[in-house]
Design goal:
Length: 188
């Protein structure tokens, strides 16, 4: 049986974008885990604290990410449970470094206003950004998951809302196509 860290798919996102946070240095004399490595179960500081410090180092770096990878991606990257990842994220939130935004994920406090749009708004903007016309094929769920570092469930909910607004239409076996172009009130 495969360990959780060896399973190939926690969500639809690819490993490379989700693991961009793993350019690590030294931490308190012990090496911080890097891409694909599990955190030692016998960490004297507590595994969640090691993960929190690793993420803190990235957030305080020269080029902090606009949105952190999902909990599932962090679980996969560190080879730990969701509870451990959540404890690490809660430590950073209590320190005022990150905040949770429903439908978007965890993001650094003070992220730019463009990054604060909901997933539905960002996916609706794909029509304009990619210059899609009525009848054009819309990117697949897996492409959107990788592009926005979001879970398949979140992407499906956003797509269902866009279908409800009349922007997209879904054809079984053929994917989604653009039904109408968004107005400024529909996309933002």
């Amino acid at each position: 049986m495969k360990r959780a860290s060896e399973q190939s798919s926690y969500s639809c996102r690819e490993r490379a974008p989700a693991l961009a946070l793993h350019q690590r240095g030294k931490l308190g004399g012990s090496r911080t885990p890097t891409q694909g490595e599990s955190v030692s179960e016998a960490s004297p500081r507590g595994t969640y604290l090691v993960i929190a410090q690793s993420l803190r180092t990235e957030l305080e770096g020269e080029d902090p990410p606009g949105v952190l990878p999902s909990e599932a991606a962090l679980m996969h990257a560190y080879g730990v449970s969701r509870t451990t990842v959540r404890r690490a994220l809660k430590v950073l939130a209590s320190d005022g470094l990150i905040e949770s935004e429903p439908g978007v994920g965890w993001r650094p406090v003070g992220a730019s206003p463009r990054d604060r749009r909901t997933l539905v708004e960002r996916i609706a903007d794909v029509i304009v950004e990619d210059s899609l016309q009525v009848g054009a094929a819309f990117p697949s769920e897996s492409q959107l998951c990788a592009r926005f570092l979001a879970s398949r469930t979140s992407v499906r909910r956003a797509l269902a809302e866009l279908e409800g607004r009349g922007l997209l239409v879904s054809a079984h076996g053929k994917g989604r196509t653009v039904r109408s172009l968004p107005t400024s009130s529909q996309s933002s």
